[in-house]
Design a protein that fits this description.
By secondary structure, the protein is α/β, with parallel strands linked by helices. The chain folds into 2 domains: 115 residues, no CATH class; 81 residues, no CATH class. It is built from 8 helices and 4 strands. It is elongated.
């Protein structure tokens, strides 16, 4: 379906360029301004991501291009506003409804999957295990640290080893040096994993 969607975007863009005088005439209207805003924000997000991205596509970085979904929305709105032929406006609505239906089906399947067999991440298990064992202060990797801090509502405070964004976490940990442990993803000695994939180890010297 992606080639069809790309073709639809190309047709919308071509039609918009053909009607550029009408688009310019609507620049002061609420609909024209909204459509142009969505179009420019979406285009900027896609362009900046394409230029600044290093390496292959990744779930960790593609989120920075999420505003790109505004691009087809803005295109569709502007074409709808300036297209004089009713038949083309109706075709546009049908095409966008088909795209929405395809997306709705995928979302429904995902909801059904999570409803039947909810996923319980090892980080969520880690947050519960640390609270259960009375561990309140620790250090770990960036993603684990802030994930657990959020899940426990800061009842467990974990400082990020690589890049710290929240200074108060660091100050809190520094005030309890004797209580700090290391939450690692590799074994440290013979102690078993506290949850799958995580081990509680002595704090590393800093």
């Amino acid at each position: 379906l992606w080639p069809l969607f790309g073709g639809l975007l190309a047709l919308l863009a071509g039609r918009l360029l053909w009607q550029w005088r009408a688009v310019w005439a609507m620049r002061a209207t609420a609909g024209g301004q909204l459509g142009m805003f969505l179009l420019l924000v979406g285009a900027q997000a896609m362009l900046v991501y394409a230029i600044s991205r290093c390496g292959p596509l990744s779930l960790l970085t593609v989120r920075y291009a999420l505003l790109g979904v505004f691009l087809p929305t803005g295109l569709g709105l502007l074409v709808w506003l300036v297209e004089p032929r009713r038949s083309l406006r109706q075709a546009l609505v049908v095409a966008l409804l088909v795209v929405a239906a395809v997306n709705a089906r995928a979302h429904a399947e995902m909801w059904r999957e999570y409803w039947r067999a909810p996923l319980y991440s090892n980080r969520a298990q880690l947050a519960e295990a640390l609270e259960r064992q009375g561990i309140r202060y620790a250090r770990s990797d960036y993603w684990t640290a802030y994930y657990v801090n959020f899940l426990t509502q800061e009842r467990v405070v974990i400082g990020a080893e690589t890049f710290s964004r929240i200074a108060i976490y660091e100050r809190t940990i520094e005030q309890h040096p004797d209580e700090v442990v290391q939450v690692a993803t590799e074994p440290c000695g013979t102690a078993p994993a506290i949850v799958p994939g995580y081990y509680v180890c002595p704090a590393r010297p800093r």
